[in-house]
Design a protein that fits this description.
This protein is an alpha/beta fold and about 375 residues long. The chain is built from 13 helices and 14 strands. It has a 7-stranded mixed sheet with strand order 1-9-8-5-4-2-3, with helices on both faces. A hairpin with a 2-residue loop joins β6 and β7. α10 packs parallel to α13. The two termini are about 15 Å apart. The relative contact order is 0.16. The protein binds pyridoxal-5'-phosphate. Pyridoxal-5'-phosphate binds next to α4 and α5.
Length: about 375
């Protein structure tokens, strides 16, 4: 019997379903929205400060500043520490484009370094080679929910007098070597884009830091540069965290650890059941690391064929990221070329992300594993 005529149990598997997460918070959020409509503090509401205090506690930092997106958190962090024109910032080549956007929008130049084969995060040896007299800052990304090696990054930064800004946009709650995402550098950026481990009902973000001065600078920058109303010491932006989004985040944050546990269980299921299937290379968890599985990214020689096969069975997958940052038209001007970052380029060719979200059912996980097993049987 061919693959085309065989029938399958019909379990649809979306790549991401936010429904299960939202069931428990829907009513309390709606009640607080209703109160907000009557009360009217749509910006700078008390819920913004409540969420900031709650999120700082969660990350183990003294300050959290709510902003309008993850990109704003990264960009305002760079501006607040004084990174600007003439400066270079070291960034992993394998990341979401926003990491580079933050650097260029702060007026600085991103200098890319390849990622390591194992954790797929900034290779600290490559980062060291990328240091020049203009380097001011290292910007490691905790990609897919697994932290970069912050012990080695801190040592490199310390011996070269560099700042560290973490891109923790995919790593809410992750830890490595006893260090929690968001607490490992001078400042960290989080995104609460709806699909992130902690997501708002639209765009939102936050910056965490131990520095009171840095927190005060970002608080001013997010609101037209003002430290007091209509006192504009520096040029700023409209980049506040909306009160509505703070309400959503305030209700969701207490559930985040439980959701991350569900993600870990789903990842463990895939790792157990996909070991030695076809040519799959499963994601590695490095020693001392406790990732939060924002994404489950495996490698296979022909991801598009596997993706199409799974789609035909109602199973949706993702590609993170199909075009490396250094080969996008937007960043052609940086002057990099094909071959500059081989680990990143191989990932772009071979990476496939499996469905993974809190509330994914055992039937959905089974269907995904069965679909993959069937593909490799027919592929032989
Ligand atoms: C989502 C994300 C961002 C940007 O966050 P936005 O809220 O979309 O601006 C930055 N870096 C990484 C690694 C991300 O995944």
């Amino acid at each position: 019997m061919s693959a085309q005529t065989q029938t399958f149990p019909t379990v649809r598997v979306p790549f991401l379903d936010l429904g299960p997460s939202h069931a428990a918070v829907r009513e309390p959020i709606l009640a607080e929205f209703a109160a907000l409509i009557d009360e009217g503090s749509f910006t700078n509401g008390v819920q913004v400060r409540e969420f900031e205090a709650q999120f700082a506690r969660y990350c183990g930092t003294t300050h959290a500043v709510g902003v309008a997106s993850g990109l704003d958190a990264l960009r305002l962090a760079l501006l607040a520490v004084g990174v600007g024109p003439g400066d270079e910032v070291i960034v992993p080549a394998n990341t979401f484009i926003a990491t580079l956007e933050a650097v260029t929008q702060a007026g600085a130049r991103p200098v890319l370094a390849d990622v390591g084969e194992e954790d797929l995060n900034l290779d600290v040896t490559a980062a060291e080679r990328a240091i020049s007299s203009r380097t001011r800052c290292i910007l490691p990304v905790h990609l897919y929910g697994q932290m970069a090696d912050m012990v080695a990054t801190r040592a490199l930064a310390a011996s070269n007098g560099l700042l560290i800004i973490e891109d923790a946009c995919q790593a809410h709650g992750a830890e490595r070597d006893g260090i929690r995402a968001g607490s490992a550098g001078n400042a960290a950026a989080f995104s609460f884009y709806p699909g992130k481990n902690l997501g708002a009902f639209g765009d939102a973000g936050a910056l965490t830091t131990e520095s009171e001065e840095l927190a005060a600078s970002v608080t001013a920058l997010r609101e037209h540069g003002q430290r007091a109303k209509y006192q504009h010491a520096v040029e700023g932006y409209t980049a506040r965290l909306d009160t509505m989004q703070a309400i959503v985040l305030k209700h969701k944050l207490p559930l985040l650890d439980g959701w991350n546990t569900e993600r870990r269980l789903a990842a463990a299921f895939y790792i157990e059941r996909l070991r030695e299937v076809g040519d799959l290379q499963l994601p590695a968890v490095v020693t001392g690391s406790d990732p939060v599985w924002h994404l489950f990214v495996l490698k296979t020689r022909e991801p598009e064929a596997l993706r199409a096969h799974l789609a035909s069975r109602g199973i949706s997958t993702g590609r993170h990221y199909p075009q490396p940052t250094h080969l996008t038209p937007a960043y052609e001007w940086l002057g990099y070329k094909q071959g500059d970052f081989p680990v990143t380029e191989a990932l772009a060719r071979e990476a496939l992300s499996l469905p993974l979200f809190p509330g994914i059912t055992e039937a959905q996980l089974e269907a995904t594993v069965a679909g993959i097993a069937a593909y490799f049987e027919y592929a032989d």
